[in-house]
Amino acid sequence: MKKLLLLAALCCSFPLFAQWGRPTPADTLHSTVVMPDGRVIFQVYAPKARTVSVTGDLPWDKPVFFRETPNGVWKGVATGLGEGVFRYSFVIDGVKVQDPKSPQAGDSAALLTVGKGYVKDVPHGAVAQRWYWSETLGQMRRMHVWTPAGYENSKQKLPVLYLIHGGGDNDASWPTVGAAGWILDNLLAEGKIVPMVVVMPNGTIEGVPNEVPPFADDMFRSIIPFVESNYRVIAKREARAVAGLSMGGMETMEVVFRNPDLFSYAWVLSSSLMPGSDLNEEAKRLDIAANAAKINKTYKAFVFTQGGPSDIAYQNCANTRKFLQDLGLEFDYMENAQAGHSWATWRADLEKFAPTLFK
């Protein structure tokens, strides 16, 4: 892929695919813990550090002292913050470091464009940051929504693509390192896609061991109803598509198998059923055998993609495809880009599948 947009200074983790990497205490670490009495515990995994501190909007007269635990995690306790919103950074061996475990870490990560990039002189749509109340989680949640150029001045109802990021990222990932808005702007200007609304929800749920089922509940109960109540979209199965990468691919299959009447297109990018799970139990839980017949009859496309043999999900995806095929599911498979488990692969996938939707 000649156009390469790299995400710099961001360490992405894949909690649900931990068996593909060497586990560390950082995998499950919560970098900030607010105690009932108002104290805040700061934690960062820095096993080779000599000194750690924290800086930002904290009381200067109440310094936070850090100590290292045997597993390489440094901990410090802040007092006197009161209520509100506070900026903070860790200082590790004298270098200010963005908290790599913050849910917003990807929002402010530096982006490096090599080559021509994706921003072209074409009409551009809008990417909005929207907040909604999650009935499932009992909290405010965020999504990003792309609307095509001219949407504001049109009365036309449009189909919707729900586009989900992977583990360790959040809803800001597709619009930034994923270049989704720019890719869609270019495809629309070239006449390659039909106008659509693209919803990029937050598939990461902090503090939940398995995010996949509750995310699907949130899609059903809050995300889709919010979109269809606040945007001029076609509220029909034929006008809905869902796609997700890595953990988001697991979430894609979760929503599809649990509610096969909701969508007409599904793209699973570099993913599989839950790694390490009992596939037969998953088949029973999701009623895959029965739902496969519905999907085969009503879906216009069900597609698996991979980034070639170097994709860390490659074998698990192959196992999942074989398992689902044996249960009667009909699908297509492609290796659109040989860029492994990376954004280069998934950007290429978006450029490939978006033109096939809603035609």
Could you please describe the fold and organization of this structure?
With 359 residues, the chain is α/β, with parallel strands linked by helices. The protein folds into two domains: 4-108, Immunoglobulin-like (Sandwich); 120-356, Alpha/Beta hydrolase fold, catalytic domain (Rossmann fold, 3-Layer(aba) Sandwich). Helix content is 23%, strand content 24%. The protein has seven helices and 17 strands. The protein has helices at 180-189, 212-230, 247-258, 279-286, 288-298, 314-326, 343-353; strands spanning 4-7, 32-34, 40-45, 52-56, 66-68, 73-78, 88-92, 95-97, 111-114, 126-134, 139-147, 160-164, 197-201, 240-245, 265-269, 301-305, 332-334. The strands form four sheets. The chain has an eight-stranded mixed β-sheet with strand order 10-11-13-12-14-15-16-17, sandwiched between helices. It has a four-stranded antiparallel β-sheet with strand order 2-3-6-5, with no helix packed on it. Strands 4-7-8 form a three-stranded antiparallel β-sheet, with no helix packed on it. β2 (32-34) and β3 form a beta hairpin. α2 (212-230) packs across α3 (247-258). The longest helix is centred in the middle third of the chain and has 19 residues, at 212-230. It is globular and about 65 Å long.
Topology:
Elements: E1 4-7, E2 32-34, E3 40-45, E4 52-56, E5 66-68, E6 73-78, E7 88-92, E8 95-97, E9 111-114, E10 126-134, E11 139-147, E12 160-164, H1 180-189, E13 197-201, H2 212-230, E14 240-245, H3 247-258, E15 265-269, H4 279-286, H5 288-298, E16 301-305, H6 314-326, E17 332-334, H7 343-353
Parallel strand pairs: 12-13, 12-14, 14-15, 15-16, 16-17
Antiparallel strand pairs: 1-9, 2-3, 3-6, 4-7, 5-6, 7-8, 10-11, 11-13
Helix pairs in contact: 2-3
